[in-house]
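User: Fold this, then the next.

Assistant: Folding the first:
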Amino acid sequence: MLKIFNSYSATLEDFVPLNGNHVNMYVCGPTVYDHPHLGHARCYITWDVVYRYLKFLGYDVKYCRNVTDVDDKILNKSVKENCTPDEIAKKYYDIFSESMKKLNNLKPDVEPFATKTLGDMIKMVKTLIEKGYAYEVEGDVYFRVKKFPKYGYLSKQPIDDLESGARVEASTIKEDPLDFALWKKDEKFGYKSPWGVGRPGWHIECSAMSKKHLADEIDIHAGGADLIFPHHENEIAQSECANGCQFVKYWLHNGFVTINKEKMSKSLGNFITIDGLLEKYDANTIRFFILTNHYRMPVEFNDEALEAAAAGAKRLKNAANNVLAWVGKKSIDENIDAEEIEEFKSAMNEDFNTSKALAVLFDLATKANKAKDSNDKENAVKYISVLIKLSRVLGFDFEKVELDENQLKEKLMSVIEEFDFIENKNATAKEIMDKIIEVRNEARAQKNWAVADSIRNTLDKINIVLKDSKEGTVFELK
């Protein structure tokens, strides 16, 4: 049974979806005004793994991650760069999407934009006004916090203890300093509404998008711990008052990434962009670094930790590489079952304990290497098949086989001996491969299909496949 820590109850709970096998999962997405950083990588890799694992368990998951493309930060950036807010949002959304792809994160099932959901936001705000939970003042609309007695339960801050301050927007026109904005007057950058030209408050965006694309009540809502208050606290208040039911069954929050014990953030200027990090480390290393730590705990960033992660990821990659180079990728058993899978599930069922899950992968790597060293192909295939299967659940890419010079040349020697392509046996593997492709191309040009097919078939026997395109012919291991 999967157990997860529910931030709302602050306890470990059995995971029982609201609707049988179906799971609705909402994750607060990016505000697209700048380059994504390691903190974003930590957040979205975490929820990518949760998404993958739920699917691995057999759940029918609908994953929704929004895009905030209307915000003060976007407007400020557009003024600074002398362009439109839409141009800023598109530019940085494209950068964000490419970064997520580079990190091997799966795309959400639904990725709604705030500006495309304005009608739903306005409808929800109107409902809150009609029910007496909100009020309009001079083109702004505010939520009456004290009309929702459970306000503060998620963040463990009772209403009586809350004070208007840096994290709660103060205003002389509000009925109460704790009341938060549902709609803001903005005649320059705003949109038409029943209260005049304005923009939605940040919090109402997620409530409306979750309701539209998932349901009034959803199974999982996730995000960074910095969103607990006020963002998620406000989402609960406005959603439950508007919809008349519980908003979220399980609240999940990931810890911060810290540098010198300080949270990584743009405001502190101590952030490292994902693209900058990928110039030094590959995606497997970054993912390994993040998954070595439990998702709820803070992660301290430093080069030593990344180097250790690089070594760990390389060890797993090398095990897969060595065995797959020997048996071929086509030998992987996609439907394999083994006791290690149960060990992996046992680890992940402990509130997604990825650190323990990685230990299972290391054990499989050791077993696979020993089987290869013993020339035990059956067990080598078995262990590497399980390793590949479980590594996919954690979002690693260990399947691309890369051979060093000696390994590749050893494979190609059989082709040289059969076709006697070159006299110089001291040629590099690349020179040999280039010559093989050249001879095959000449045979094809002369319509000597027997020779061309014979070369392809011989390469196929050593798990090398040729791929022809307009740019030329390349090879890869299969």
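Now the next one, as you asked:
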Amino acid sequence: MIWRIGYRLLLWLLFPWALAHLWWRGRRQPGYREHIGERFGWYQAKPARPVIWLHAVSVGETRAAEPLVRALAARYPDHELLLTQMTPTGRETAQQLFGDRATIVYLPYDYPGAVARFLARFRPRLGILMETEIWFNLVEGCARLGVPLLLANARMSEKSARGYELAAPLTRAALGRLAAVSAQTREDAERLELLGARSVEVTGNLKFDVVPAPRLLALGAELRQRIGPRPVLLAASTREGEEEMVLDALARVRIEDLLLLLVPRNPQRFDEIAALLERRKLGYVRRSDNRAVSRDCRVLLGDSMGEMVAYYAACDLAFIGGSLLPYGGQNLIEACAVGRPLLFGPYMYNFAAASSLALAAGAAIEVADADVLGERAGELLRDQASLARMAQAALAFSRAHQGATARSLAICERLLTPR
């Protein structure tokens, strides 16, 4: 009880900060200043059919949910699909993927009144929370109304588990109220059970079931044709501080005509990275300009959203950003699904299981730092036979771990079956 009162008091103390945060983030991403009423439980949309609700906080979780959303739509055509996000980029991704078949809104902040209005408005028959989205008042509100909650594609790193342990009473109460948990790996399942989760099953990672869109593969082929016959290294989803490290490392790679395809993770940093390239006097082209990539161009700046599959399809070798510095890495499964060899740094703890499996399969190589990144990239790009072996290993690795969608759908069917 004391923890719950303290949590609610903290939420109210943070209320002015929440409004300021939306305004501040809206300077670079205007979407943060839109649909603000939804953040507090006020909605215009009103369902006319029974609702199945899935929450995916941002872009990565929304893309991971794609095979499960499509399976639910096919299995329950008489239901309305409700998708919620917390970020404008996540909402935009949901619109791109499911705008013709789902209602898409923001999930409210975890204030009791906002949660109550959300649940009263949509009255979901089932709620699905993707990965590690555990909101204490939301879980309590669903339990009070009898809305079964599934924590799907759940992952729990050692670092995250230590954080949840700091609020152990709240964590145990929330996880204990979940109707089911589908965990990515046995290690994830064990950590969640230690924190209080029940009815935990290991179903695998939904991201292995995401099929690369033919439109994006075609765009990748078009980009590759525009680039021409030259080696291409992709630095995918780089984070703050990593772009300088990658550029320094590649300056020492002596490969004629090498092109760096550089894609920052956050769209608000596109202009910042363009300015960095100008300061370094590196010839570059922005993807958004749709211009030809000349032979003297050193960098193609991927300043677009929703085209990562195309970027993977256009490269010879991919480096996974967020891994040279302690950000936890990014999803590497998309690259494997299109058969691209991988390099990543020592900080892949948010994707520990997938990265370990990729290393064991021969689809990826871990590098200790940026200097080693440059060395290994140069070696591989000069060795077409090794690149080809790693590419085949990546495809085989991706296909060998499919099937999480069917296992997760079976849990949803069980929770939706009247008792």
